[in-house]
């Protein structure tokens, strides 16, 4: 039996095997202490053009070949009859600069090893990522070098390999943030990459310390000035975060893998790979309701850009 033809069986076996594998390289964790969470009555007050964040830029760092059934739930009735296949999906990192706190990334993108197969290893790694594409100069280090500005930290949406694979190409002294108790997928010998081996401390964003906002519920105002919000969107992973960035070029919702694809977001179909499907559906619906109530916000899914946003080292523009 070829397991790649039976993605649900393969995923179940993989999750079962993890129980007997060794979790390695998990960095020490400490709780992020957010600034005072100022009371904000509504989102319209927030998403007025904010001048604190500038230079919002997309870094396209390469592509990985994965099963379509991982990116979108093919069992959903809206996709009846659609067959599974291997597809290449883009892997992004998102750059922005804050006028007071410096420059940051949302997710780390891919390092230069993805020109030749990448840095994910293990018995089942080939099922998840069977091939890679990356042009010279497309890796995260090259993007940062072209920016020519120091980076302060990375805000992870979650700790899966395709979102942490660029850490080895980043400066060692920067900080890293993720959701509270977010599971780091690094299990020897079945699926591992050691991406966080050099990370001494991982700061955990506990959204229960945040403030209640319409539609999205409790969120964290990361800088305390209404420019960056961490939004709990569990389901794809246990403590997945999405981010809302209010910049001089407009307001952008980075879903992470709460929605892998733009098509899935539009249809209301969650991704196939989930830690908790019920939570995943609820998180996606929450983000969709938020976007519908605030149509001026541009939604950026985890692995597929919407129309009007081009692939490449593309700076977001207020004209979009």
In short:
By secondary structure, this protein is of the alpha/beta class. The chain is 18% helix and 29% strand.
Give me the secondary-structure topology:
Blueprint: H1 7-18, E1 22-23, E2 28-31, H2 43-46, E3 53-67, H3 68-71, E4 86-98, E5 102-106, H4 125-128, E6 131-133, H5 140-147, E7 151-155, H6 161-164, E8 175-179, E9 187-188, E10 201-205, E11 211-213, E12 217-221, E13 228-232, E14 241-247, E15 250-256, H7 262-267, H8 277-293, E16 298-301, E17 314-315
- Rg, rounded, reads 18 Å
CATH architecture assignment name: 4-Layer Sandwich
Number of strands: 17
Overall pLDDT metric: 90
Order of helices and strands: HEEHEHEEHEHEHEEEEEEEEHHEE
Count of distinct structural domains: 1
General shape:
globular
Structural class: alpha/beta
- CATH homologous superfamily caption: Ribonuclease Z/Hydroxyacylglutathione hydrolase-like
CATH topology: Metallo-beta-lactamase, Chain A
- Biggest β-sheet: count, sense, barrel? 9 strands, mixed
What's the oligomerization state?
single chain
Helix content: 10-25%
Distance between the termini: 48 Å
Task: State the low-pLDDT regions, or none.
Answer: 1-6
Proportion in β-strands: 25-35%
What is the name of the CATH class? Alpha Beta
Keywords:
disordered N terminus, six-stranded mixed sheet, Metallo-B-lactamas, nine-stranded mixed sheet, alpha/beta, 8 helices, hydrolase, 320 residues, Metallo-beta-lactamase, Chain A
Write up this protein.
It is globular and about 50 Å long. The protein contains eight helices and 17 strands. Helices cover 18% and strands 29% of the residues. The protein has 320 residues and is an alpha/beta fold. The chain has a single domain (3-26, 44-308), classed as Ribonuclease Z/Hydroxyacylglutathione hydrolase-like (Metallo-beta-lactamase, Chain A, 4-Layer Sandwich), CATH 3.60.15. The strands form three sheets. Strands 2, 3, 4, 5, 6, 7, 8, 10 and 17 form a nine-stranded mixed beta sheet that branches. A hairpin with a 3-residue loop joins strand 11 (211-213) and strand 12. Residues 1-23 form the signal peptide. This is MBL fold metallo-hydrolase. Belongs to the metallo-beta-lactamase superfamily. GO terms for molecular function: hydrolase activity; metal ion binding. Its cofactor is Zn(2+).
